[in-house]
Amino acid sequence: MLSIIKNYNMNPVEKFHAEIQENIQHQSKDEKMIGITMEWLRCVSDHRYTHNYCWFGRPIIQFPQDMFAMQELIWLIKPDLIIETGIAHGGSLVMGASMLALLDLCDGIESGSTIDPKKSKRKVLGIDIDIRPHNRAAIEAHPMASRIQMIQGSSIDPGTIAKVHAVAANYSRVLVCLDSNHTHEHVLAELSAYAPLTSLGSYCVVFDTLIEDLPSEKFPDRPWAPGNNPKTAVWEYIKTHPEFEIDKSIQHKLLITVAPDGWLKRVK
Fold it and tell me: FRET partner for 29 with CA separation of 20 to 30 A, picked from 56, 155, 193, 216?
């Protein structure tokens, strides 16, 4: 009843968004739906489901739901720099770059001027220990290439970390995404290296925390498994870093996500 009375005093836009929040709260408590979702996640992991999608022609290897959430975050934060560990085929780099291009376009419309993409400050910085030549060539030939910078090297190597920090020093609004080696120690080291670069109100998104919730037999040839993965690293990191909070509202909204407990918002 209180919800109905509250909504009655809202304008249509406020009412719509309030209803969305109620929907999210309700589905976050629907144990049957959550159970069905987890069963679906366990099943699709056998079929490389995430390999089925591209962004602007490049394989992105992510759930569409997570990428839609990333789009929402980019619009909310309006970052100048997106830092990503893990490049693979470059689809995520291209997606980030295309969203930054749209932010520049919107800025241009508001100011009545045109921003030259080659002169735009906004950038995506990708780090990978092994950028395959065919992937590098495709990324560098892509129309979004002017907004992308790549660094080859281990994301936790001191030299690589120093290069990333040197780039980040020139930016004020930074969004961080961690998606490379998924072992506990590696992700914890990445969090220590890159999470501090996250600007206030922005996010450090840790992908593939879902590993903790899947059977160990799903990873027969990988060094990570339940008990040793990005989620366990997140849990350890936030114990001593109160400047970050897990934003569970995102996973409650998506349900289908590879990043449960991985949406870390910098709150101080």
Answer: 216
pTM: 0.94
Q: Which burial class, exposed, middle or buried, applies to 135 when counting CB atoms under 10 A from its CB (0-12, 13-18, 19+)?
A: buried
> Which residues are 127's β-sheet partners?
85, 151
What type of residue sits at position 228?
N
What are the CA-CA distances from residue 95 to residues 84, 189, 223, 224, 227 (Å)? 12, 26, 28, 27, 31
Q: What's the pLDDT tens digit per position in 129-174?
A: 999 999 999 999 999 999 999 999 999 999 999 999 999 999 999 9
Cα(96)–Cα(79) distance, integer angstroms: 10
User: Which pair of tokens denotes residue 232?
Assistant: 């366990």
3-state class (DSSP) for residue 240:
coil
Cα 61 from chain centroid (whole Å): 12
**Domain segments of the chain: what residues?**
1-44, 53-266
CB contact set of 139 (below 8 Å; sequence gap of 6+): 58, 87, 90, 93, 94, 145, 148, 150
What CATH homologous superfamily does 53-266 map to?
A: Vaccinia Virus protein VP39 (3.40.50.150)
Using one digit for the tens of pLDDT, what is the confidence trace for 28-87? 999 999 999 999 999 999 999 999 999 999 999 999 999 999 999 999 999 999 999 999
Q: Are 197 and 168 in contact (CB under 8 A)?
A: yes
